[in-house]
Amino acid sequence: MAAKQLKFYWSPQYQIFSCDGAKLEGHGSIQTNPSHDLVHLFIAANGKMPWQPVESREQTCFAEYNAVLLEHLLVNCFNAAALGSMAPEQIVPEARKFLQWFVSEHYAPFPVSEEEAFRRFAEHLDIERMVRLFPYFYSLRAWECFSPTYRNEVYDLEFTSEDDPVKEAPEWAADPNILETQELVRQKLAEAVAEARSIRPRPEPVLASPLFNPSAKTKQKKAGLGFKPIPTC
Fold it and tell me: What is the pTM for the complete model shown?
């Protein structure tokens, strides 16, 4: 399979994220941090999972669920290994706890249960690919933690789904913090996948029309997050 070509550009007033010609463009300030938006491209690099929070509300729900869950797993690993602010055994449970709120309240009504969304996420997750790409996230997240002006800066990264930053950058290969956190990511993603595989698929109830015709307040808040798709050439 050919490597996916990915582009990440984030500035205070303009953002563009692309994967093999499929692009998202944002104008003006957005609430999400650069590291969250980078994770959307990790989901794109993974393949077989919704990553663009545009088009239908259902696609937006799944794209945001996938990105937020992966983001929380990676952030929790970073917090545990690099900052020592979380116990490793809490990494997956705390991520699941947040996503249960995400599904039941923040993005309600969600198309499926949180368990089913979690099962679908894990079904196609490429653990080794996420582990390989993780140093990009580590570097960006560390900058967010230690630079008080990180939201006023510009981030520009081009990479492929087959990149291996540790092998390609000697300074990262020599950084024990990155290597230790990367190994923790491998362990915790595997733990999450194993947990998800224990969930049996259940028939989902047919939801009433509000799912496809949300209230004006819900639609304004959750129908694309300020991004619009750009037609490919």
Answer: 0.86
